Amino acid sequence: xxxxxxxxxxxxxxxxxxxxxxxxxxxxxxxxxxxxxxxxxxxxxxxxxxxxxxxxxxxxxxxxxxxxxxxxxxxxxxxxxxxxxxxxxxxxxxxxxxxxxxxxxxxxxxxxxxxxxxxxxxxxxxxxxxxxxxxxxxxxxxxxxxxxxxxxxxxxxxxxxxxxxxxxxxxxxxxxxxxxxxxxxxxxxxxxxxxxxxxxxxxxxxxxxxxxxxxxxxxxxxxxxxxxxxxxxxxxxxxxxxxxxxxxxxxxxxxxxxxxxxxxxxxxxxxxxxxxxxxxxxxxxxxxxxxxxxxxxxxxxxxxxxxxxxxxxxxxxxxxxxxxxxxxxxxxxxxxxxxxxxxxxxxxxxxxxxxxxxxxxxxxxxxxxxxxxxxxxxxxxxxxxxxxxxxxxxxxxxxxxxxxxxxxxxxxxxxxxxxxxx
Length: 422
Description:
- Strand 19 and strand 20 (248-249) form a beta hairpin.
- The chain is of the alpha+beta class.
- The radius of gyration is 20 Å and the shape is globular.
- The strands form nine sheets. A five-stranded mixed sheet has the order 7-6-5-1-8, covered by helices on one side.
- The protein has a domain at 4-271.
- 27% of the residues lie in helices and 30% in strands.
């Protein structure tokens, strides 16, 4: 049976006046720059099914992932456990989780889940026989490693070389722009783009926006792709801010346009094939919470870096410590979706690029990709060496709570799943 593919999108823009999250302070939205979307891709080979849901939100809680999967199974008849639900990590969106002093917006979340299920149903109903192609490019002008090693050996997140005492950028980026294209008899049905970079534009402002993934989708729509999913990669320490250029921030328009040019070039040479093998596997592991010292709790450990108002940490950390004392670990699902020789690896974290690159290396000969903020959110997961230097991402708070070994535990699980693919 030939492969069938369906794509869909639905507007999930919240109303003006919605609280935003992602900046550790209370921000009330007052305008919409551009819409936010849920985008969906579904595939059926006749022997198996897989699907993707991409949300223009900061994150997605496991509670909502399980709701979406259950309803996709019950209402649409599509195997929900074969669906990966990920967030772009958009900082200019609504409160989909508790963050600092901002509570999650339960009314918005309920409406968002309804719309995701509706969009998935539309994608399944619109499935057509399709050929799928893959390709890639390399982009060095959008994402930058934001962690700068200082002369004293500590790291400053968003450090700059015009401030003195900076030595070098701590680590690499992942420049791969991977593209999946699905083509039917009617033309291009949709695209899935994977690239590692924080979409943090307009996070500190009062405007709502889909960020550079929205710019990318708009441009590709004008070039023939009705729906373009953006699956963020291992971008926990990667942003559009270039520390080597005095903190220059590549605008969302430039970032989206550069990625669109990359995708367009890839499409021009893409070979679409008829043979397809698809499938999905997953495993849930327990990630240990950090054993925090008094200095770490007080933010006085070497390399500690707190952003915004320190009082937020003072209110947040006692609740976190209570949770960590009641539960020694946190569950995390690692999911791998295979389409031919490509493995999309869902990690429920702001995962550091070093760990994502490890999965790509050790997943070989399978072409492994990493999808961050997928199927839940356990917070920042840095690589082991990062904890020796500090920085914002390793400083104890609700979004940085796991033990240093958690990153490699997730990578080990992912590599095992990739290696066991049929």
